Structures are given as C-alpha cells and as structure tokens.
Amino acid sequence: MKTKRLPEYLKKNLVLSGGVHDTKVMLRHKGLHTVCESARCPNLSECFGMSRATFLIMGDACTRACRFCSVDKGHPRALDPDEPRRIARSITELGIRHAVITSVTRDDLQDGGADHFYKTARAVKETSPGTTVELLTPDFQGNKDAIAHLLEAGFEIFNHNVETVPRLYKKIRPQAIYERSLDVLRFVKQQKHILIKSGLMVGLGETVPEIKTVLKDLKEAGCDIVTIGQYLMPTLKNIPVQAYLTHNVYEEYRRFGTGIGIRYVYAGPFVRSSYHAQEVMDGLTREPYLTRKM
C-alpha cells in the first residue's frame, strides 16, 4: 500500500538565512548548478546556510530517466571548458573544507564525462590544496579506461551510488545495471588506495533482507562508506514512496553494515549521499558515527 501522509519526523523546517541567500547569489553569479537544487534536497537550507553545496557539473540535463530523480532530462549542451575553474574558485570563496562534486549522467559523451571530472578535481586541488575532494560519479557505462584516467586526478573519495536493490532496477533506474555499478566500485578499489563510498535510498518497496544483501555486496566491492536515507518524492511526477522507515530500522542497517566490516555507515531519514560529507570524512579518523535521531 502506498503511504501518502508524511510523518511528523520527516517534516523539516525551512530556514532562509542570510547564508542561504548568499550561497544562491554566488552560484547564479558564476553560472553553476547544484544537485541540492536540481534534486530538490530537503537539506538545502541547512547546507546552503553553512556555505556548503554539492556542485553539479556538465550541465543540468541528464541523459537517463531514473524515476526517483527530479533532475531535468533531455539533450545536454556541450561541456563548458571554464566550469572547472569556476567550481574551484567557488569552493575557495565558500571556504569549503571537503568538496563534493557530482554530475548529470552524460551517456552522449564517449568517456561519460570522466575527463571533465578529472579537470574539475585538478582545478580544485590546485586552487585549494588543503581541501579534500569527493567525486560522486555516474557509472561511465563501465568504461574502465575513462575511470582509470579520472583516478589520476588525486582526490580522496570515489563515490558511486547503487541507489536501490537489484530487484527494483528495471522499475526505478532502467538504464542502469546493478552489477555494472558494483564492478565500477570494485575496479576503483583495485586501482587506487582511496576511500570508496556508495549510497542507497529506502522506502521504495525493498525488503530488509534485500538491503542487507546489498550491504554485503558493497562490502565485497570494497566500500568503506555507505549512506542510507529515506526516499522522498521530489515532485508529483516521480515514483511514489512505498514506506517511511522508522529510526530503529536505520539503526539495524547501521549495525549490520559495520558488523560485516564497512568502516562507516551513515543511516537516517534525511541522509543523502553528500549530506554531512565533511563530518563523515572527519569521522573516519574518530569513533564510528552513531545514527542521530533527526
């Protein structure tokens, strides 16, 4: 049965601080996109208020049509060669210590945009050498030469989301392949000594055993970090929520994931792949993160 009423614990207050306004003004001035805005993230005001943003490169039109996502679909424009420089300058101006950079999927490009990711990561490292960089990438259609090139950019975290359980792929993300995503994560772990991260949405009709199987698969693929958060319909055109999970289920997933050897499992209703990414990075050098009641 489809759940329609949003539980009280999933109602987040919108805070329109001066920091939110300033971040939006800077992004528009530089002609930059964020997944925070394109995906209608419920954490936007919190993150923008702290001068944080997850940059969305290679335009704002995606070549795939995942049913959970509100990013525009269609024919993307040519790559902007100046975008890496503007991203790097913005990260410096915002004072971001841990930068998260993602993209639309660009299946129209021979390398899937891997070289553009490379150039962006290099620009950030050259402009802000003290900033750690996390790249949240598409699967590049499994192009290992393109991925190997990207890995030479010298960043700290490679992030690629499996998003959901394999049974739901045809329904939720029909142009993606679960095993291909695992293979990408596995390949990166074999090639470079960097942190590997992946993320899942829940509430789409998956079962607890299915999520635990995915966690085992991610551990086998070499994941150090896994994020798990509640799927929320960004628009009425997206696939409906099937269930709202309670806090104890997230805690069960966290305990199971860390119990099988995943270094850091961040699970909770408002968790997104790049939410509190800086704290997650910091937490890897401290005690394991305990799921907060948000």
List the defining traits of the structure above.
single chain, 294 residues, alpha/beta, TIM Barrel, eight-stranded mixed β-sheet, two-stranded parallel ribbon, globular, disordered C terminus
Please describe what this structure looks like:
The chain has helices spanning 18-30, 35-38, 44-49, 83-94, 114-127, 144-150, 169-172, 178-191, 208-221, 247-259, 277-283; strands at 33-34, 54-57, 61-62, 72-73, 98-103, 132-136, 157-159, 195-202, 225-230, 264-268. The protein is an alpha/beta fold and 294 residues long. The chain has a single domain (17-283), classed as Aldolase class I (TIM Barrel, Alpha-Beta Barrel). α4 runs parallel beside α5, α5 runs parallel beside α6 and α8 runs parallel beside α9 (208-221).
